[in-house]
């Protein structure tokens, strides 16, 4: 009797969870504001690669979802990973911010555990997003240029990453 009750309870839980999953899939969630700026960045979605900083890089971006985008970056040279980056672009009612964290080849973070590097969005249009310190510019459907301002002491150097889209 006890075993039958447990099985029946599990069955009811599974049945009701499938109903609510089906309902949530059929009814899209409504955001309190439109995510138009992130939608303008949807062209970033996909996988990119190129050469920069003496090595070969790969960068992947996921489509906008839940008022954010997620990206990953890897730079390698001579078959060795130099570093990784984990990136997010988050849109709130007030601003859009790109955040990133660096990791070495063993996934040891460069920034403090509770810190990330932040770039606030300054301007955006259908082919370009300019953040405070990093720019993304679409060069047709299959290419883009990323320009990053890197500080070394008191000097700032712009590093360009010419990217081509590729399929995984």
Please provide the count of β strands.
10
Amount of beta strand: over 45%
Number of helices: 2
- Helix-strand category: alpha+beta
Shape: globular
* CATH first level of the largest domain: Mainly Beta
Strand order of the largest sheet: 1-2-3-4-5-6-7-8-9-10
CATH architecture of the largest domain: Beta Barrel
Q: Spans with pLDDT under 50 lasting ≥5 residues? A: 1-35
**Domain tally:** 2
Q: From the alpha carbons, calculate the radius of gyration and give it in angstroms.
A: 21 Å
Task: State the end-to-end distance.
Answer: 53 Å
* Mean pLDDT across residues: 83
CATH fold-level name of the largest domain: Lipocalin
Throw out a few tags for this protein:
168 residues; alpha+beta; Lipocalin; ten-stranded antiparallel β-barrel; disordered N terminus
Notes on the protein architecture:
With 168 residues, the protein is of the alpha+beta class. It has two domains: 30 residues; 131 residues, Lipocalin, CATH 2.40.128. Helix content is 18%, strand content 50%. It is built from two helices and ten strands, in the order ααββββββββββ. The chain has a ten-stranded antiparallel beta barrel with strand order 1-2-3-4-5-6-7-8-9-10. A hairpin with a 2-residue loop joins strand 6 and strand 7. It is globular and about 40 Å long. The N terminus is likely disordered.
């Amino acid at each position: 009797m006890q075993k039958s009750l447990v099985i029946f309870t599990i069955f009811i839980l599974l049945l009701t969870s499938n109903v609510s999953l089906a309902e949530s899939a059929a009814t899209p969630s409504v955001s309190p504001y439109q995510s138009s700026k992130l939608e303008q960045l949807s062209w970033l979605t996909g996988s990119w690669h190129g050469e920069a900083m003496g090595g070969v890089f790969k960068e992947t971006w996921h489509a906008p979802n839940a008022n954010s985008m997620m990206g990953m970056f890897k730079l390698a040279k001579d078959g060795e990973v130099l570093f990784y980056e984990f990136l997010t672009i988050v849109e709130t009612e007030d601003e859009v911010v790109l955040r990133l964290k660096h990791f070495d080849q063993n996934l040891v973070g460069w920034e403090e555990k509770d810190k990330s590097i932040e770039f606030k969005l300054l301007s955006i249009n259908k082919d370009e997003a300019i953040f405070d310190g990093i720019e993304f510019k679409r060069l047709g459907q299959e290419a883009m240029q990323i320009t990053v301002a890197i500080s070394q002491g008191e000097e700032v150097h712009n590093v360009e990453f010419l990217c081509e889209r590729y399929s995984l």
